Structure formats: C-alpha cells, structure tokens
Amino acid sequence: MAELTKQGLGRFFARQGILVAFVVFMIVFALATPRFIDIDNIAGVVRSSAILGVMALGVTFVVIGGNLDLSVGSMMSFSTIVVLDLHDKLGPALAIPAMFGLTLCLGAFIGFLVGYLKLNSLIVTLGMLSAIHGLTLTWSGGKNMDIADKDATWFGVFGQGYVAGVPSPIVIFALLALVLGVILSRTPFGRKVYAVGGNGTAATFSGIPRARVVFMTYLVSAFCVATAGLIQASRSMGSQNTVGQGLELEVLAAVILGGASLLGGAGTVFKTVIGVLILGFIQNGLLLMGLAFYAQYVVTWVIIILAVWLDIAAKRGRLWSPIA
Amino acid sequence: MTDTTPALRLDGIVKTFPGVRALDGVSLELLPGEVHALMGENGAGKSTLMKVLGGIHQPDAGTIYIAETPVVMTSPQQAKREGVVFIHQELSLADELTVAENIFLGELPRKSLGRVDWQTLYGNTDRILKTLNVGFDARTRVGDLSIANQQMVEIARALTVDPRAVIFDEPTASLTDAEKVVLFEVIADLQSRGVGVIYISHRMEEIFKITDRISVLRDGQYRGTLNTAETDEEEVTQLMIGRKLDLSRNESHHEMGDVALEVRNLSCGDLFRDVSFTVRRGEVVGFYGLVGAGRTEIAETIFGLRDPSGGQILLNGEEVRIHSPQDAIRRGISLVPEDRKGQGLILGMNCRDNMTLPQVDDMTAGPFVSDGAEVAIFDQYRDKLDIRTPGWRQMVGNLSGGNQQKIVIGKWLSMRPEVLIVDEPTRGIDVGSKSEIHNLIRDLAAQGYAVIVISSEMPEVLHVSDRIVAMYSGRVMREFTSEEVTEDSLIQAISGIGGDKVA
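ok -> structure tokens follow
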C-alpha cells in the first residue's frame, strides 16, 4: 500500500514536477521575505516578465517542433527600434503593422532556411542573432531611438496602459498565451508541430508537410517577438539598439524550465508560462533577499540545470544512470 | 552436461511497472554447458527478465542465484563481474575505434604515465579473435566490418571476462545464412567450455537446431520448460500463444476486380530499373527479394518519397504524377513503412493521435481538432484490429511491437486507401501477432483492397500472396502465381538465377 502511494506520488512529480517546484518555490520565498507575496510585488513581477513571456510563447512552438531560436533577443531589438523610428515618420497606426510585417519577414527567412533548406537551426539562428543586430544598427545608424513628442501619442497604451485595472503587458501576455495555447493543443497545426518535433521522418511518412510546419513555427515566433518589441517600445517610448540583448537565453531558459524537450515533441504553452513566472519570481525573490542583481545570473542558471537534471531523473527513475 | 549445479538460477522473480505486472513469479534455471532458449511473444516479459538479470531493473521479489549463491545485481558492471554477459540485438560499438579498442573499452591495458599498452592490447585481442575463427584482426576499424562481424566483436568482448552465462538476444536478426553458421559454431564452442547460454529468438528453426531446452513465458508468467529433443514447433507455439499457428500456402480464391495500380517501366537512378507490374482490387501481390533488391525503394517512389527517373504510374487506368506523400495519400495510396519506430510512429505521442495523424486536417469541428471524431476512429480500428492497449492516451512507445504495428496499419486503413503497400509487415513481431497480421492482410484483400506486401521472409510471402514478384538487384526477375511458385524457383529468381532474362 505504501509502495503504491509512493509510486503514485512519483508519477505525479514526474508529470507535474514543474508545478510542484513552482509552489514550493513560492512558499520558501514567502517565508523568507514577507514582502514577496505582497500583491503589488506579484503584479510587478508578472508585468516585468511579460515581454520575456511573450517571446517564450513563440519559442515554445519552435522548440516543440524540434528546433531552436536564438535570434529572438536580437530580433526584439530590431522590432523595437523599427517601430519607434517609424512612429515619428508614419504615425503609430501605420508604424505598428509595418514593424510586424518586417519582423515576420525575418521570421520567414529563418523559417525558409531551417524548414525548406533543412539547415541546422542552431547555426542559422545564431547567425541571424548577429546579422539582425547589424541590420538594427544600420537602420538606426547606431543612435538611440526616441519618440519626439511622448505626450501627443496613444502609442503608450501597450506598455503603460491598463485594462480593467490590469497592466496592459499582462493582458497582452495572457491573451496571447490563451490563443497560442489553444492553437497548440487544439488545432491540426498544433498537432503537426508535435508530430514534426517528435519524429520528423514518421511525420513525413504520414503526409505531414514537415518543411511548411517548421516554417510556420518560426512565423509564430517572429509574431511573438514583434509583439514583445511593441510592448517594450510602448513602455519606454525610446530605446537603445541592444534592448533585447541576452534575452534569447532567458527565453530558452524559461521554455526549458517549463519542461519543453530540447529534442522536440514535448512541452505546452501553459508549462512555458509557469517557466516564465518561476524565472521572474526567482530573480525577484533574490533581489528582495538582498542579493546583488548580478547574482541572478549564477543562481538562475544553477536552478535551470537542476531543473533539467531532475526532469531527466524523474523520467528514468533515478538520479544517475549509466545508460542515457 | 555432467555438472548439475545450475550456472544460474532465477527464482520467483516479480517485477511491476505502473499499471503492468511485467513479471509474475518467473523462475528459470540454466545449467553449465547448456543452450537454453527463452521464448515468448513480444510483451511476454523476456526483455524485462533479462534486464533484471543484467542489473538494469531491480526485482520487486525473487532471487538470483549464481552457482547457487544468492546475489543482488545492482548494475550491468556487477552482472559482468559475476560472469553474466549480454550480446544485444542492437550493437553498441564505436564505429571509429578499432576492434581491440572496442573489446577492451574502459579497461585498456596501461603502461607508465597512463599510456595505452598497444602491444598487449592487440596481442590479447588477437588471441580472443583466434578462438572465434574470424577473418579480421585487432587493428580493423569496427565501422569497416559487416554487421555479422560486428556481432563477433560483441561476442569477443563477452569472452574477455571468462563468462559463466552468455545471453544472446535475437542475435541472428540481421545475419545471412552463412554468418549464422559461424555464430552457431561459436555458441557450440561456448557450450563445450561449460558456459551456459540463454538464447532469445523468435525463429523456430534455429531454436530446434541449437538449443537443449526451451523455456516459455506468456503474459509475464512462466509457462514451462521443454526438452528440445522431445517437443516440436507446434507444442512450443501453443505454449507461447495458447493456440495453433497457421503458416500454410495461400489457397484462398475470391473474385478479383479491375486493375487498381499499374506500374510501367518505372526506374529510379541506380536503385531499380524498368519495373512493371499490376495489382488488382482484391489481390495481394508479394514482393520478394534480398535486402537491397530495390523493393522498398519502389514502394517509396509510388508513395511520392522519391522522384522516378523514368516510367509511369497508373491508378485506375489513369496516369498520375506523385511528388509527395500528400499527393499519394490524396490519391488513395497508403504505405506501412518497414521501420516501424523510425518511420511509422511518433513514439512519444499517444495511440489515438498517431492513428489519426494523416487525416488530422479532416478531424475538425470548426478550427479545432474534434476529440469525438478522433476517438471514434481510434475505437473503430482498435476493435477491428484487436489492438491491446489500456486506452488511447497510452504512449505508443509503451506498446508491444505487434500492437505498435497494428496502430500503423490502423492509421492507414482508416484513410480507406485504394492501394495499400505494406513493407515488412511482421518484422520483429512475435508469432501470435504475426499470424493475426497475416489474416488481416488476407481479409483486406477479400474486402477489395489492392495490397502490395514486401517481405524478406519466404513463408510470409507464400502465405499471404496471390502473386509473387521476385526481384534481384533492382530488376523484376520473374512473376509467379501462388499455384506455380515453388521455394526453389523463388530462391533462384531472387539470386539472379533462372529469371526471365536467362530462361
């Protein structure tokens, strides 16, 4: 009987490990620093995680499809700079769709290289990280980009506004998570993403157009990046060329923390959201406990590596195994 | 066999996994110098039992005795120290290293400063290789060896520890007849040195040729041990599946319809040339030939996975061009591929989603996948094909080989194809499921499907086909009807002798 309970618990942990970790985490931090569970603090964390979160939603599609996207940070800088520049030249109503169009072009290009030409996604997106950075600098001429008259535009609603008392970045993040979550779990396209990432050859043998599905995952990712760029630009009304630098790794960290398999075929939007929140609360909790912000870099990655290890350990039923 | 102290004894082994009782009090005894067959359908518990013996799984109950001393196997390394070694079906060698390095990997002889003592290494290796009577030496790169010789390297590796018991898991799966003979000599040699051999295989001829006793598992339970000399295939099969197996010649005669698929002078580079044949509704056409004769490549070309370099494909008398699997599926062609796990299934996906994958676009209510429609399809084909699974949520990777194959077949049947191509329908599948799948193929033909069966097993081809196309080196050598075919003429045709070109 005790054995059965133990087995049941083990299976629960293996399946819901990330959720359990999240709850344990919140309790520990709440006990250590009472301010942690303050509603304003929590709202603040979610709000500042929104940009990272929106990007992580798109990368979830790419990763489940069996590929990587390391270009999202650099692409987010591009979107931010482009929309700020066009804002003063075309007005916000035209600037926003133009920026989305251009960002989607970048996503389509990556999708073409990885999906149709079947190039290694690590190499392609690493290369694009650098190439897009160059593109951004060329666009801006290396200067910071600012909206000239910050009070005369409605452009701030995406980053600074509120909907029914909830900060708009949170609303956008939640809505996008809902829509993409439904697409991934409930539509034929979502099913194909899992199939292509789970076993690309078998997907091909089942008549799934593998190249097109991979292409589409990069479009989803680019759309999310454009949305993140919009929130970023709208919040600060001005930006450096490097605003998204390094975010690609944090995004990937959140997706992995959420439990998406780097080999493809596994993961969910919901779990990625949890991964994003854990990452946000870890960093917030460490600050509240008085650690310098740069300690985050170390602690964050130690926790991620631990998470990956425990995930694998849960799957094979022991912490260490001589066979993979 | 004068020594009657068992080299190895398993007593009352129990192993449960969540939801499954994989081993239910299994006992097994292996004498020194004995070749002991372990048989059972896929999923009967053979591999689990061997994993318990090899220290990969810990039993929930029961004891392992080595020479009547109880031992607890905690790891594969410990099993090896106890003199229990495994020759696996899937080879685990490093292609880029030499034979010697592979054999002594992890325990290379050393000189001072940690340098490898190559002279001793090669010397020791060659001494072992000599006892195996193989045609390669210690310095050969493993990647340059044939599969059979790579298996010899695995065996040589086992011999480095002076084993008490050697377990062969489906060792002949990828060997030619000549290579099998060498393997059996090695086993006989082990036997004469007093080593106990456990031999796991589905192949009856081999079992009866080389083993002394046969132990049978069914559904995780021990079903008995027979003396090989005193039993026959029928008794063993009955013990394994609880009923008889029919592997006679196909003699069914039902009405055949029009020609569904015609192939004219189809060529694809060097893979095959000038291939022509027809398949009628209600007919099973068997493609028989050696591995590499071009049979799978023809199927892949018809299914749109390869572009032909010449020739025509006609469906219902009309020429069609097929550029992708999507084209093929739209035109009613289905392919059950030869590599079930690599090409047929997404192992980490559940049974239902695997089955409905090719038609997921049509399984919708509005923009969403309809659970109801999918479950309905799954239930229908689970019942029709008698797929044994706890439910559609089960990951396909957790099913037995036979049930996995039925999922793939169900996937393609549910597309209601005009032409069904089945490549190696029963590779790696236990006897029971094998005969079920054979019956299924016959039934499909009777229902009016045009079926192509590609197989490397002659009894299978003879059993299911109405006509047999014999291929050799990318060419059709001869076509036989099921009445005129003989085993001799078939073998000659696929060896490039006595085909139409010569006759």
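Chain A has one domain: 40-147+154-316.
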